[in-house]
Amino acid sequence: PELDAGAEGVLFVVEGEITVSLAGKKHVLAPGGFAFLPPASGWTVRNESGAAARFHWIRKAYEAVDGLDVPEAFFSSDQNVAPSPMPGTEGRWATTRFVDPADMRHDMHVTIVTLKPGAVIPFAETHVMEHGLYVLEGKAVYRLNQDWVEVEAGDFMWLRAFCPQACYAGGPGNFRYLLYKDVNRHARLGGYLGGGYLGGKAR
């Protein structure tokens, strides 16, 4: 269970099955299964399958905004969400979005990026937020700052804010990665100290 009442979470299953209990109901997540769990929702997870299970549990301190409700819990899967193609790529570069990008209640997104064999991110893009990437499938070369690094299924990357990045998916199969990033909130100034913030109001 989540012991921090201020923490939201995302679960994403990569192997086996897990059972999430929430508000008196059980939800079984198979590979590709996704759950968003808001803070103070009192959820628990168990492996009731009798076989090994592997999943990602991404936690974040939820940043509330006056006038916006906390988003509700929901369950989905990779298989049930159609990827959104990047314009001008003929579908070779697409993103599976579990949350509506226009929903300002959410302060983090966990998505799946898919590049088909031969697809590229053709320019060095940068972002104001840090990124976490876990490779789900395939191989590629990924630009981090000025270096091109070979990555494959099971590898993890953490990118600082404004880190130049690009990608070439050489195949032979799809290159897919789970992507985490903060969204819809200004970055706080100052650092963390004792559960609060330096240079800002502690929460």
Overview of the structural elements:
It is built from no helices and 19 strands. The strands form 5 sheets. Strands 8-9-10-17-12-15 form a 6-stranded antiparallel beta sheet, with no helix packed on it. The chain has a 4-stranded antiparallel beta sheet with strand order 6-1-4-7, with no helix packed on it. By secondary structure, it is mostly beta strands. It is globular and about 45 Å long. The protein has 2 domains: 7-79, Jelly Rolls (Sandwich); 81-182, Jelly Rolls, CATH 2.60.120. The model is unreliable at 193-203 (pLDDT under 50). Strand 2 (18-22) and strand 3 (25-29) form a beta hairpin. It has strands at residues 7-15, 18-22, 25-29, 33-37, 44-46, 54-61, 74-77, 84-85, 93-97, 108-115, 120-125, 131-137, 139-144, 147-152, 156-159, 165-168, 175-182, 192-193, 196-197.
List keywords for this structure.
49% strand; 2 domains; single chain; Jelly Rolls; 203 residues; 0% helix; mainly beta; globular; 4-stranded antiparallel sheet; 6-stranded antiparallel sheet
